[in-house]
Structures are given as C-alpha cells and as structure tokens.
C-alpha cells in the first residue's frame, strides 16, 4: 500500500478550539479520501498553542527548541499540509504568522497545502484569499483552489443532503488535497539547497 504523511498545522488559542475542530474534520476527510485510492496516511498534528513560547524564543534567539525543530521538520518532510488559523482583525493570527516565520523559506516549495480559517462571522472569510493564500504562494507552496472558512454559524449546520454548507466545503477541499498528495509524494519535491533566504538583498 502507498504511504503518505499529512501535516496539520492548527493555531487556535483556546481549548477546546473551533480551529482545532476544523483541522480535525479536514484531516479526517483527506485521510478518508486517500484510503479510497489505496493510500495509507499518517497524520502529524502541530498545535502552535503548545509551542508559543518556543516560537517566541526562536524569533528572539534564532535557535529552535527540540520540540519546535521536530514540528518544523515534520512539515518539511510531509506530503501535504493542512493549515488552519483563527481570523483576528481581518487576518491570520499573530501566533500563526510567527510560526510560519521560523520555517525555512524553502521548506514549503511545491508542497500541496489546504488553507482554512475560523472566525465569528462570514464577512471575515475573504481573509483566506487576500492574506493566507498569498502567504503560502510567496513560499512557493501549491495552494489548493478551495479554501475552507468556518464561521460560528457553520457549526452544526450544512449537513443535510444537498446543503451548501461547511460539510460540502470540507469534502471538496479534502478531495483536492487528497488528489494532489496521492499523485506526488515528497520524493517528487525538489528543494533548492542554494535558494536565497527571503528578503535577501545583494546590495546589503
């Protein structure tokens, strides 16, 4: 049976967290879709809340803790990534962005990524396309066409047959990521060891 690894990055701050709940629903849907095609998937969940102090220390010192290094390595070595953040002040959370900032700029090159977010109201859903999608595009990841946003009103709704709700969006996005992950594993990703770091200025 074909083997794949799926990394799940979730940046919810509370416990329990709707962000983690959405991440779990998406990962279960992707694993299910991959199983239908004969692909066995191992899932690595990175809960950024548990690494908040390590992320801050890394930003200040430039050195990751062992736990943070393992989390970063698991994403870099994965065949696909699900990234979920709460929306604060019309954009991704500061903790989510801080974690992304400590990842090597080349680590996500050609990595299939499903982006998702949670928020209080539907009007914040546009943040997926004007903030989160450009972030991963800048890092040369392959961002799936369907992004999933879950407002407070989405939970417990949209499960009826034919309903255009959260369940439908989750399944559509999961199908896209599963197809991409099944088609090309990490062995097909070519990372340029000589790539210049983000923001490099040859003029100093």
Automatic annotation (TrEMBL):
InterPro entries: CE1759_FMN_reduct (IPR023932), Flavoprotein-like_sf (IPR029039), FMN_Rdtase-like_dom (IPR005025), NAD(P)H-dep_FMN_reductase (IPR051814). The keyword Transferase does not apply. The keyword Oxidoreductase applies. Keywords: Flavoprotein, FMN, Oxidoreductase. It comes from the Bacteria. Residues 6-155 form the NADPH-dependent FMN reductase-like domain. Gene3D superfamilies: 3.40.50.360. One of its GO terms (molecular function) is oxidoreductase activity. This is FMN reductase. It comes from Galbitalea soli.
